[in-house]
Amino acid sequence: MIRRSQIGKRLFDLALTLPALVLLSPLIAVAAVRPGLLGQPFILIKFRTMTDARDADGKLKPDAERMPPMGRFLRMTSLDELPQLWNVVRGEMSLVGPRPLLMEYLPHYTTEQNRRHNVLPGITGWAQINGRNLTTFSERLKLDIWYVDHWSLWLDIKILARTLFNVLRSSGVKLGQPLEEVDDIGLHPDTRMRADAAAMDDHRAHRSK
Hints:
Blueprint: H1 2-24, E1 30-35, E2 41-46, H2 69-77, H3 85-89, E3 94-96, E4 122-124, H4 137-150, H5 153-169, H6 179-182, H7 189-208
Parallel strand pairs: 3-4
Antiparallel strand pairs: 1-2
């Protein structure tokens, strides 16, 4: 029964993806490694939205300063995700599922959070129609697990419809959002580095008293 449901999900993906991919194929995209089903890495494709602009010290400038107007438009409308239709055709992603995050997050998931990899990652997902990038990392992971536990083809159709509605309204998107506002569980290396530095400063301050 489960296998038949997954076949139905795959056919649903291909029926919507192949026509769109034909239209998008001439456009240029960039790639990055992401964890997919069961945490296995794959090459995720998307449109580039930021430049590699650096400051006088050679460090990358903040995201907001590296995003040209076209990049902002692609992010606000989520059109930067469309090249991932090729990932769907290859069977590495589904139209709907938990969004693929960074490879360096993998060692820091709890056993429960890691269950988000029990299904194919998606171009959109339950977390994306329930806050998009305005929710914290911990809340997004809870929403991902909810999707894994409640998946159905009808739920996928509902998520796709809500995604289109949200994209047309450009709702739930905040560009240039500071990482510390959303990474409440220390998944990103920069967050952990800041937390370690703060802990070290507190330790030094305590010892100096």
